[in-house]
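One such given next:
>
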Amino acid sequence: MPAGWCYVDEIAPQVRVDLKYCGNDNFVGRPIAGYAGGSRAILRRDTAEALARASAILRPQGYALLVWDAYRPAMAMQDFRAWSRTKDEKMKSKFYPHITKQGIYEGKYIGDTSEHSWGIAVDITLVNLKDGKEVDMGGNHDLLDVSSATESPLVSEQQRRNRLILRDAMVKAGFRNYSKEWWHYFLADSAPYFSYSFPLDDHLPPYPMH
């Protein structure tokens, strides 16, 4: 693991994790390159610390955070691009019902690089502490659609309020939202930017200290 990086559970153990690209519940419909070896979320330490701050803001309001994606190897971005050139559309109805596979790129839902590969971004939602259920945000993770814009008028007023509860806490903790995706946040003012491609592994040794 690079210097200054960590497992999220080391810094923010109260944050829940369900990495969607480790399994089949994603827009490709299979595990993504680089995810086979790990289920623990990884981030730059400053980003994990900001996530812990967001969690502390939300707990008194009755919410926990659930991370769907954190560090994403650059090889995963290459895997997405290779998939986009195939005829496989088995997940279209759930994840991109109103656009083509190329429209995913044209609409800037996905690019060839990502803040995820810099270790400063998370895909995230709210969980109700009372019942442990995900809060209704008006759409699933990676629903690549105009209705997924954070302030979309296509969702109910309550769903939009839920999105803004998440956004307010994340912004207070130091994150910025990607307005087309209510779930995507990245750490503000977080240079340097460098894409990594080491695969996820639940037992990575720490960076050697000298």
Q: What stands out?
A: The chain has one domain: 5-187. The longest helix spans residues 157-172. Residues 36 and 81 are 18 Å apart (CA to CA). The radius of gyration is 16 Å.
